[in-house]
Amino acid sequence: MMNEQIPVIILCGGKGTRMGDRTVPKPLVEIGERPVLWHVMKIYAAQGFTDFILALGYQGDLIKRYFLEYDWQSRDFTLALGDGTPLYHTPNDTAGWRITFAETGPETMTGARVRKAARYVKHARFFVTYADGVADIDLHALLAYHRQQGLLATMTGVRAFSRFGILETDGQGKVTGFQEKPMVDTLINGGFFIFERDALRYLDGSDDLILEREPFADLAADRQLAVYEHHGFWRAMDTFKEAQELTALWEQGAPWKIW
Q: Which domains does the chain have, with CATH numbers?
């Protein structure tokens, strides 16, 4: 059965201030030898979703340049000087991808970025995700769940490891145990969203509209927001240390590498 052609909006415009000093925007921070954005796109492409809309902002020109130069940067080729047409010898591992680069403003917040990028959506529904989160998520299962719920939006819920150790006490000032970064037993927002076009009315507003605040709160209040629980691998890359950890996982086989 052919895949339903659903476009994927990827939020690529944030400054990623917790990543520290760097010369590229966070979506281009490398995991292994490829930007984290490439890894996110490969997760979708491996499951048949290859129509991407990149919601650009901070240093969006560098993201454009990366893909415009992708062929000669990543493939072997022979160039006959004077001709100017490269003869490529190795395949393009992004063949078939369709990428729309949507400028959404350097200071725009996530909800407004989705609204602005959605002008290029011509379908009844669309995916939305962040440019810095990877998972071994089954997107077809997510889509089937969304259809079954019949609501305007579905978000993926995951359980993540705490960034802090947890103290166990006896209530009288003494520590009885310590858990080093345990898994939190509550669902958090893991990204990997699906929206119906009618959900866009929840994104009306100014450029400071944050997707994770009013829009989701209003959708939930109207009983129009479902949650799909993902129990497999999931990681977000918010800091340089987390980028290093993901690179180490990539070198060990990468749990999110489903292609």
A: 8-156+187-252 (3.90.550.10)
